[in-house]
Amino acid sequence: MNGAESLVRTLLGGGVEVCFANPGTSEMHFVAALDRIDGMRCVLCLFEGVVTGAADGYGRMAEKPAATLLHLGPGLANGLANLHNARRAATPIVNIVGDHATYHRQHDTPLTSDIETAARPFSNWVRTSGSARAVASDAAEAIVVARTPPGQIATLILPADTAWNPAEAPAAVPNVPARAQVAERAVTEAVRMLRSGARTALLLAGSVLRAHGLQMADRIAAATGARLLVGNSNARVERGAGRVAAESIPYVVDQAVAALADLQQLILVGATPPTAFFAYPNKPSVLTPADCRLHVLARHDEDAVQALEWLVDAVGARAHTPKAAAYQPPTLASGAITLDALGQSIAALIPEQAIVVDESVTSGRSFLRSSRSSHPHDWLKNMGGSIGFGLPVATGAAIACPDRKVLCLEADGSGMYTLQALWTHAREGLDVTTVVFSNRSYAILRNELANVQAGKPGRKALDMLDLGRPDLNWTGLARSMGVEAGRATDMDTFNRELQAGLRSKGPYLIEVVL
Amino acid sequence: MNGAESLVRTLLGGGVEVCFANPGTSEMHFVAALDRIDGMRCVLCLFEGVVTGAADGYGRMAEKPAATLLHLGPGLANGLANLHNARRAATPIVNIVGDHATYHRQHDTPLTSDIETAARPFSNWVRTSGSARAVASDAAEAIVVARTPPGQIATLILPADTAWNPAEAPAAVPNVPARAQVAERAVTEAVRMLRSGARTALLLAGSVLRAHGLQMADRIAAATGARLLVGNSNARVERGAGRVAAESIPYVVDQAVAALADLQQLILVGATPPTAFFAYPNKPSVLTPADCRLHVLARHDEDAVQALEWLVDAVGARAHTPKAAAYQPPTLASGAITLDALGQSIAALIPEQAIVVDESVTSGRSFLRSSRSSHPHDWLKNMGGSIGFGLPVATGAAIACPDRKVLCLEADGSGMYTLQALWTHAREGLDVTTVVFSNRSYAILRNELANVQAGKPGRKALDMLDLGRPDLNWTGLARSMGVEAGRATDMDTFNRELQAGLRSKGPYLIEVVL
Hints:
The structure is a homodimer.
Chain A: H1 3-13, E1 18-21, H2 28-36, E2 41-44, H3 48-62, E3 66-71, H4 72-88, E4 93-99, H5 115-119, E5 125-128, H6 132-147, E6 153-159, H7 160-164, H8 184-194, E7 200-204, H9 211-224, E8 227-230, E9 237-239, E10 247-248, H10 253-260, E11 265-269, E12 293-298, H11 304-314, H12 339-349, E13 354-359, H13 365-370, E14 377-381, H14 390-400, E15 406-411, H15 412-415, H16 421-427, E16 432-438, H17 443-451, H18 459-463, H19 474-480, E17 484-488, H20 491-503, E18 508-513
Parallel strand pairs in A: 1-2, 1-3, 3-4, 4-6, 5-6, 7-8, 7-11, 8-10, 11-12, 13-14, 13-15, 15-16, 16-18, 17-18
Antiparallel strand pairs in A: 9-14
Helix pairs in contact in A: 1-2, 1-6, 3-4, 3-14, 8-11, 9-11, 12-20
């Protein structure tokens, strides 16, 4: 057994069953080992940003890590932006990067770089295996790190000779630490705050945003009058019919400040304090009022669901029946295309247990409003703010959940970052319907240019925000990568196209011309 | 004047006239300043790997830096791979990265990351401006660093508030240090070696690979019997009719070792010792024989051309007439498409003073042989080995030299990494003809899998190297981004398509189906 084989067997033993890959020469022995050993699904992506984004989507839905396989420092570099997003989403990933053979690095050949340093800002753990015999135990540790709550990025760097030199047996993967229970005083203090009569909200994030956690939160809110808040972006929310909906804090600073203006107390349940996404001149970074008291009920690595259970009992809310939405989708919209009409039709058609990967940026906001009573679905958003997230995450989600439809809501500017994912949709026959909102601009930046008070923009500035001249042809791009596609310029066509996409069992892309 | 204006005026004063950009919210004040101040050409790229690659192509041809404008840590991350290539090519770049406002970073909002650490492995210099008043002098220093021989990557990180807060005047850019002259003893020793009677070669790299430096080297070779060698990849070589050709060290290790087997002495002229690109089991990393003596005539930051001038005089070679190739291109090839036929037709048609950006990997090797007597041209190759270099570098080269035709030889696997560059070709109307060698595989990796002795590949391994299933449609991809395109499946069609591309004054892409 060589180091590469000990790696693959250790990964399989630790429950890592999918490898998203774009390998090169230094990873050829790993590729050969993946080939020889049954059980690992290998998914080729034509750019590393697709690799790491797919691992993010997979990890969010499978609740266990996929492996990546990247080619030296630059291959890692290409994957860092979506690794950043995954880290912010607390997605477990075993991020494997090949390097030159240990004895070759001294020659500083063209592809040499300091991989550890490049990885560190975007990883929770970084290790370079020193020898083939160390690969198995290093991989086992990487799996444990990745699976440690709330989920982490473990980057394992493997010099080429650690793959081809002899190794011993694969390593057994130790038990993963469970989520820590919150301290009793954290619950006691929350109870005191909820009974104080002050205007109080729970801000929910992370693991509590599934159906059960939201029901617990709803019981608490009903019994105490507290508001239920969620941030603008969450890694995975269970929404729609049968689920409890919480109030979303707006992205726009002034709106967010207004929404939180009367809060006297905020209890953080797996969440961090609400802050502005960006700084703007003469606007606050902190969104809560200056005299609002913040209390951490559960950190994001603690067992926030259990904390809510305790809180339910402590405030006597166990008997309350959570007020979940009934299935009552909107009707299909018709006529001219508007963002509201699109949100309405999507909400009307979204299938049961769909996974909605939402990188629609400015265009998709109406979907959130329209879909409260749609079929139950999971809703995945970008937690790191680095665009190019949607198409890759849809890739990984579809591989994690082959029996569920993935609906990818994608902005044109963001979609262009990692459009290579469409080829993987086609190759793997993934059940992903993508809607591209083609407004031919970085529309959010038009707002942001105003928000930062930089004055009235001229031609050169507007050109930097404009994706027209020439217009991108998204149906052409999709078809050129093997994905069936249609274009909609009115709502009736859009409805037909979306129905066609959702009916198909493979990838489909709809370009909506706004 | 705010910090952003002081930046733009300092850049313009330092001769930085082009900014390749993909800005975001934190860079909006820079965008506004670029808008208000005349003189800076702003080029929008739809992915940051295109931004940094374009700056590489621009810097190589303009011999001065372009600026980039990137959006926080993930925007930088997306640009790092082509920054790596540029650093290895010693291209001057002023790499500007926006960050959150200084007072906002403490909140660790979604897009926050450690930008300095991420930049360091791929930069020669990294600085974060601490205030708006520091931006001008920091930018001036960045320009000096970028222009310091042989050319460097200067990464300047600008928190958003350093853009919008008040600043003073722009800073004057200090003089750039000239290339250091080599020590006299380095020349004396080279003379001694060349006269020793031992089998000797000069290995040339960097600035000596222009017409004049190659002529000097040829004189020395003629007078002393030394061989003239160049590495497999060089940042910029002047080739073709009227130019002296040197012998290229093969990429394949066994071939390279054989080519250098009888060398007793090697004189490095701006070059580093020849090494294998990758390590392979049981093959050497160092390509020269164990007893070959290496001598550094000039480091890559020293004035290697002047060193050759001195050497010419010292060995009495001034009177020799360099043996340059006459213009005698091959005829057009016809019949079935083969790599040799493609090389022949390209060599037949390449226009005078074309800039050839070569990322053809396995497919373009015959071009090198066929084009020795073609019209004179510049030949730019990837110095860092990170694929996705070609289309962006062609973008920047075309902007640096609007009167010259750019011919981009691109492999399909590499081209997919940064295909977004085609949109910029279209928007800017760049005079770039791209030939995509569509072999539907990472063909080099099929060889490499054999080279690393990983055994006979099975289906899963071959799938990781295969770009088919589905086939990429490159003409469709190009047209969908506004670039005219044609497909060739035989040589006569290829010849017609290449002629059409070269005749057009705008972007054109030819997909060659291999």
